[in-house]
Amino acid sequence: MPACLLCQSQIQIKLTLPWLLSWQPMRRPVVCDRCWQRFESIKRLHACPGCGRAQDQPTQCLDCARWPTLAGFHNEALFRYNEAMQTYFHQYKFSGDYQLRQVFATVFQQAVCQRIAHTAAIVVTIPVTLATMQTRGFNQVSGWIPTIETAAVLTTQATTKLVPQSKKDRHARLLTPQPFKLTTPTDITGQSILIVDDIYTTGRTIRHAASLLLENGAKSVTGLTLAR
């Protein structure tokens, strides 16, 4: 029996009649039901249409009301950034446990594919700094979408290690200057773009990326994050 990547308990595989009749290969689960249920999904009907924050009504939240309009940009988030998600990111992103990419790979890839299926949008990941890549060894978002083609049109401007966003308070995050630059400006002219990132906190990072892409000819830009 496979072991849960989060708690290492043995996972009981349940054989269902629909699966037996489908003649499809079995997908080995990587997370037990108990651990998976600790993550809280966000439904569109109960989320801010601007940033994806979970709330009672699909109305603009106070955070989004403070931001100037950005040419139709909006973000969707799949899960709440609750205690379980915080623990996950600590292990995956900050401790560098790359095998944990498998926890959300299927659900995140499906979400990306659903959003680009009818728009022909190109997928752009938020890049990490060279220092982060050398320390961690991977881009955490790319780890979730290994089979999806992405466009490497963004890179970081930093030449030295900066204070990580996770170490800043809200005020410091909002004051963060534009951290990105384009690598191939002509590749995005007239294109619809889906930016994918890990966490939407204040929105400063993904909005910097969106504004840069729009300023350089992108037709439209939307965002998708795992957590909010």
TrEMBL record:
It holds the Pfam family Pribosyltran. CDD domains: PRTases_typeI. InterPro entries: ComF/GntX_DNA_util-trans, PRTase-like, PRTase_dom. Residues 171-223 form the Phosphoribosyltransferase domain. Coiled coil: none annotated. Belongs to the ComF/GntX family. PANTHER family: DNA UTILIZATION PROTEIN YHGH. This is Late competence protein. It comes from Lactiplantibacillus pentosus MP-10.
